[in-house]
Amino acid sequence: MAEEPTEEGADGADDDAEATPKKKMGLMKLALFIGLPVVILGLGGVAALMLFTGGGDESHEVAELDEHGQPIAHGSDHASAEPEDVYFYEVPQMQVTIQNGSGGFAHLQISFHLEIADEHISEELDHELPRIIDQFQGFLREMRPEDLAGSAGGYRMRLELLRRVNLVLGEDKVRAVLIDQFVVA
Asked: Pick from 107, 84, 85, 110: which is nearest to 97 by CA?
């Protein structure tokens, strides 16, 4: 019952010829299954590093903004500069009826100041106050208590009031809206 060699394997030359391509295929598979994931992980690591560190290009710094949308000054360059003049304009207290979402009504009572850079803008604010209050009333009447909830609601409201006052006066005359009192009843 001894096995006889087949015709191909009888002389032994064909076995070496078949073994060489199998070894080459094994090296290719090994390179694909180990080398390719290593390359992918390396590229992913570089991409993550660039994402979290800003890519190493310092010329595209993003300014950090405060709650009023103004850039926050960091470093000694800004500390030596004199502070800008800031003036405040008091808007009369407003009471607005808003919908409460369940078919009823709620009352919004709000008082705030406008931050302006130039004292002369207050004269223009006095003259344009009826238009500004009309803009504010129209916006605030559409609000619901859930729109005003939390700090995000207050922030969005300040930004929208700032946008509306600057629509009436012109761009960048009012820097910020500062809320003094805000009651929904």
From this structure: 107
Those residues whose C-beta lies under 8 Å from the C-beta of residue 71, and which sit 6 or more positions away, are 63, 64, 65
Residue 104 domain-assigned?
Answer: yes
Instruction: State if pTM tops 0.70.
Output: no
Indicate whether 111 and 41 sit together in one domain. no
Q: Which residues, in sequence order, are CB contacts of 109 under 8 Å at separation 6+?
A: 93, 94, 95, 181, 182, 183, 184, 185
Whether the Cβ atoms of residue 88 and residue 120 lie closer than 8 Å to each other: no
The pLDDT of residue 81: 47
Domain span at residue 110 reads 87-184
The span from the CA of 160 to the CA of 57, in Å, is: 34
